[in-house]
Design a protein that fits this description.
The protein has helices at residues 22-33, 39-49, 83-88, 97-105, 133-142, 155-165, 176-188, 203-208, 220-225, 237-271, 277-295; strands spanning 10-16, 58-64, 68-73, 76-81, 109-115, 118-126, 148-150, 169-171, 194-197, 211-215, 228-230. By secondary structure, it is of the alpha/beta class. The strands form 3 sheets. A 6-stranded antiparallel beta sheet has the order 1-6-5-4-3-2. Strands 9-10-11 form a 3-stranded parallel beta sheet. It has a two-stranded parallel ribbon with strand order 7-8. A hairpin with a 2-residue loop joins strand 5 and strand 6.
Length: 297
């Protein structure tokens, strides 16, 4: 979310078990999500408030990275998150799984909601990929680079987004610390890894990678952990940065070659007396100027 996709998700589906208390339940969900820093939370809050529903006060709140959130609102314990969160609190969600799987096949991020240990609703949020994502992935692949998507989203949603962006390799349902572990595995296999991310959950992997690249429209934590900050959210900035770095390294090597070649050839000639001192000095100045001019290209 926010890296391959636009990072502007919208609340698309709300499937509640008991329609009679729909408005109250949505108020609780919106209240809980209002405390979350996850990019999907804002979409849920905005979608619920857009229905004119008042959000009550949250009495307690806890975010569990990779799982979801736990909150107490008006004396009710609310769980919102993944299958793993429901499993952690032993909530039976078997009846919700077919609907959840269907939403995920559509590329939506579906979340389960439980109240006091009982399944109560499924909400889904959808985000579209950036117009430039597919082109950027294609450009990276043309540079001979392997593109892998590592995400905390469920496998079905992740694969749907990856398929649309042209990414073949996907690691889904990965916790924040798990992203760093996946980076280390790639490094252990002898690969140089550049990690691109925009959120708090990406920070450990950004710091672990050989090169961490943060999207400038992302969080401050991600930018602090990264080596490079891309000023635009456009993913084409990644191949642009790689192309620029390769051209810069080529330029440096050219300058080193000409500087070494001049000295290797010029010093023996000057030492043998075949070159007047003033001419040697002029040649040295010309060599420096040529290196500077080449660097300015």
């Amino acid at each position: 979310t926010g890296t391959v996709t636009k990072g502007k998700p919208e609340l698309t589906d709300i499937d509640v078990v008991q329609e009679s208390n729909r408005e109250q339940l949505l108020g609780w969900i919106g209240s809980a999500e209002r405390n979350s820093e996850h990019p999907l939370a804002e979409a849920i809050v905005k979608g619920i408030q857009g229905q004119g529903i008042t959000l009550p006060v949250t009495e307690s709140f806890e975010a569990i990275p990779g799982y979801g959130i736990v909150a107490v609102i008006e004396g009710q314990q609310l769980l919102i998150g993944t299958r793993k969160l429901m499993g952690k609190y032993e909530v039976n969600v078997e009846s919700a799984l077919p609907k959840m799987s269907s939403l995920e096949e559509e590329g939506k991020t579906a979340m389960l909601v439980a109240v006091n240990g009982t399944y109560a609703a499924t909400v889904a949020v959808a985000d579209t990929i950036k117009e430039t994502s597919k082109q950027a992935v294609s450009r990276l692949q043309s540079l001979g680079l392997q593109v892998i998507m590592i995400t905390g989203d469920n496998e079905r949603t992740a694969k749907a987004i990856a398929r649309e962006a042209g990414i073949a390799d996907v690691f889904a349902e990965v916790l924040p610390e798990g992203k760093a572990i996946e980076v280390k595995k790639l490094q252990a296999a002898g690969k140089k890894v550049a990690m691109v991310g925009d959120g708090i959950n990406d920070a450990p992997a950004l710091a672990t990678a050989d090169i961490g690249m943060a999207i400038g429209t992302g969080t401050d934590v991600a930018m602090e952990a990264a080596d490079v900050t891309l000023m635009r959210g456009d993913l084409n900035s990644i191949p642009d940065a790689i192309f620029m770095s390769r051209k810069t390294m080529l330029n440096i090597k050219q300058n080193l070659f000409w500087a070494l070649a001049y000295n290797v050839i010029g010093i023996p000639i000057a030492a043998s007396g075949f070159l007047a001192p003033w001419l040697a000095g002029a040649a040295m100045a010309l060599s420096s100027v040529s290196v500077v001019l080449n660097a300015l290209r």
